[in-house]
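Late entry, G3I complex.
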Amino acid sequence: MKRFLLAAAVVAAAACTTTKQEPTLKDAFKENFTIGAAINEWQIRGLDTLGVQTLTKHFNSIVAENCMKHEEIHPAEGVWNFELADKFVEFGVHNNMEIIGHCLVWHSQTAPWYFFDDKGQLVTPEVLKARIKDHITTIMTRYKGKIHGYDVVNEAIVEDGSYRKSLFYQILGEEFIPFAFECAREADPDAELYLNDYGMNVPGRRDTYVKIIKDLQARGLRIDAIGMQGHMGMDYPTVEEFEESLLAFAGTGIKVMITEWDMSALPTVNMGANVADTEEYQAKLNPYPDGLPEEPAAIWNGRMKDFMDLFIKHSDKVQRVTAWGISDRDSWKNNWPVRGRTEYPLLFDRDYEMKPFLNEYLTK
Ligand code: G3I
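Prediction complete; structure with ligand written out below:
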């Protein structure tokens, strides 16, 4: 009998140790917002195993970093490339994650054919509208019931509050935004629909988006939330100006999302002078190729904590916080403004270790 009791105790102890879950970001923030990451081809295809492990352990939302962009998914008229986007959606469904489609209308990474006729002339408004409707309807019909929400229009407004003079704007004027939202709602009435942009702390851009949101609402069109991308640096934006915009957007009655959060840990370099080829400039642009020194790391963690505390403070308004990548090695900032530099902007480092500022949220 004693041997049986001892065996039972060992099994029970093992059960305790195996069931003791390590704390995760998605659990730490489950009362506040979903916590997401942009995922790339290597993660979608399961080739970045440590990235996928980190992703499925800590995140409950994913967004396509590139595979759903126009030039990738719709490279020519009547030509669709769904292979990677299908795998992206399947990954999210399989892992029971909130799936975000990025992005249906964007001035960048749009295949040129979209805007020109076979004579190389700009297409008429009617032709472009038909192409936008076809693009949006085809994608949203395909992923109906799987993709939770879409960045319907991305980066439409510039710093002074005027419309970016994209070809969407040149051909359709301001109407391209409500038109895109109308097509999206018709294509999938159950999907959430979003505006999305960077530099949302800038008053001009903020004020125009408030107007656009109110106009969409006045037209009876669906808009669920606005994405503040949240690409930050060591000296921009201030928490106060970011909060002011967050509250202005929430004041329209829609939710706010932080959709592409990263923070450069390198000194912000003025891109004005075109001196990218000088050695001195190169050194300035890539000051920490072998690791981030303690001092900038402490400043970076402090600023990231300040912003995460802001998001938690307003978690009644903030429905999602998404990082624009999983680990520092993934970040687009390793190649911007110059290729091949070493950046430290994300929530996990190159060894997939969590950045220190997050620890306190896990142990609360
Ligand atoms: O996939 C090709 C590869 O086959 C080819 O060998 C390589 C050659 O350069 O290019 C690869 O495509 C690159 C793609 O990223 C995938 O790595 C494109 O050139 C490159 O332009 C593209 O950059 C993306 C950028 O958007 C432009 O689409 C970044 O990864 C992505 O992080 C960035 O994300 C944007 C958001 O969509 C919108 N908000 C701003 C944010 C940062 O720019």
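The pocket of G3I is lined by residues 65-66, 69, 109, 154, 198, 229, 260, 332 (CB under 6 Å). Will revisit in the morning.
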